[in-house]
Amino acid sequence: MANAPVNITVTGAAGNIGYALLFRIASGALLGPDQRVNLRLLEIPQAVQAAEGTAMELFDAAFPTLGTVDIFDDPKAAFEGANIAFLVGSMPRKAGMERSDLLSANGGIFGPQGEALNAGAAQDIKVLVVGNPANTNALIAASHAPDIPSSRFTAMTRLDHNRALAQLATKAGVHVSDIDRVTVWGNHSTTQYPDLTQATIKGAPIPEILADRAWVEEDFIPTVAKRGAAIIAARGASSAASAASAAIDHVHDWVLGTSGSWTSAAIMSDGSYDVPEGIISSFPCTSVNGEWKIVEGLEIDEFSRGRIDASAAELVEEKTAVAEMGLI
Ligand SMILES: NC(=O)c1ccc[n+]([C@@H]2O[C@H](COP(=O)([O-])OP(=O)(O)OC[C@H]3O[C@@H](n4cnc5c(N)ncnc54)[C@H](O)[C@@H]3O)[C@@H](O)[C@H]2O)c1
Ligand SMILES: O=C(O)C[C@H](O)C(=O)O
């Protein structure tokens, strides 16, 4: 293979998402069939043995695109030389919990990991935070990595985006690949705003679907926003394979580009669309040359304005809460 191997650190490697994610990365689904990857698995000491079992299976799969697999319980060692980091390791919520209930439980993980990234990651490091509450955990990590541009710290709303595509495709009786220009705004929480106002199906706008306000407001939006809880209720565990798949989609598009389309990614707000600066919020994004760019100039109607503002306000509240806990 022509290119040098890419070093990819995955935290929570022995967890449910980790198990689904590692094999997709190793198989070439992330960076393509011509790019070798070295995996660096980070776990807590109690789960290192389980991670070793996963590493044995990765070895047994004999992927042509897999280079080395190393296992760590020390973040500084795990992030040394990392080009890409998936920060998955943290506690998932259980039935009856909101993702914000995880702020204090998981927030403490991301400061030390931000410091470790700052100390040793490669100069082109790209970070995707999956562990909940993902947006604010990404903010915590970024705030501990002063030498890494904050644009390199992102959080995952791609699962919400994919859920929105699936719901719209079902409603319209089309394939997900026929749909474009869907956006998830804000927080990866129930305040998120899955927005269809710009959506197209086979290149055409969808006025009839948008006119069905009962479906948009009482069915589509709550179904997408509460899908995580519905999965927990059905499976008895939080989404794992779909989350891993969305993580692959996010980083694949970040590195290789969105090629004419747009997607949703939670990135550091620069104040676009009056979302306060300094929170990690989901926007409509393209990726060109390895950089996320917010799609600018979209018209925001009154309903959308209220929903975007409400989710941004929740992110500001989360930021205040973690500041009071001394996490940023
Ligand atoms: N953003 C999203 O769309 C999305 C979707 C699904 C799940 N999640 C979140 O992803 C996280 C992981 O979910 P899961 O189902 O894999 O959970 P899991 O409990 O199956 O696995 C988590 C793993 O993380 C490890 N871990 C804990 N602390 C760690 C640390 N400090 N360093 C390294 N590893 C650590 C645990 O040992 C465990 O193996 C949860 O917070 C969940 O809520 C986010
Ligand atoms: O909802 C959860 O707690 C898990 C995850 O964030 C999801 O959206 O499936």
Automatic annotation (TrEMBL):
Pfam families to which the protein is assigned, alphabetical: Ldh_1_C, Ldh_1_N
Annotated keywords: NAD, Oxidoreductase, Tricarboxylic acid cycle
UniProt: substrate binding residues: R93, R99, N132, R163
Residues at which NAD(+) binds: G12, A13, A14, G15, N16, I17, G18, N106, Q113, V130, G131, N132
Gene Ontology molecular-function annotations: L-malate dehydrogenase (NAD+) activity
Active-site positions on this chain: H188
Domain called Lactate/malate dehydrogenase C-terminal: residue spans: 157-323
SUPFAM superfamilies: LDH C-terminal domain-like, NAD(P)-binding Rossmann-fold domains
The reaction(s) this protein catalyses: (S)-malate + NAD(+) = oxaloacetate + NADH + H(+)
Keyword NAD tagged: yes
EC numbers on record: 1.1.1.37
UniProt record similarity statement: Belongs to the LDH/MDH superfamily. MDH type 2 family.
Function (record text): Catalyzes the reversible oxidation of malate to oxaloacetate.
Protein name: Malate dehydrogenase
Gene name of this polypeptide: mdh
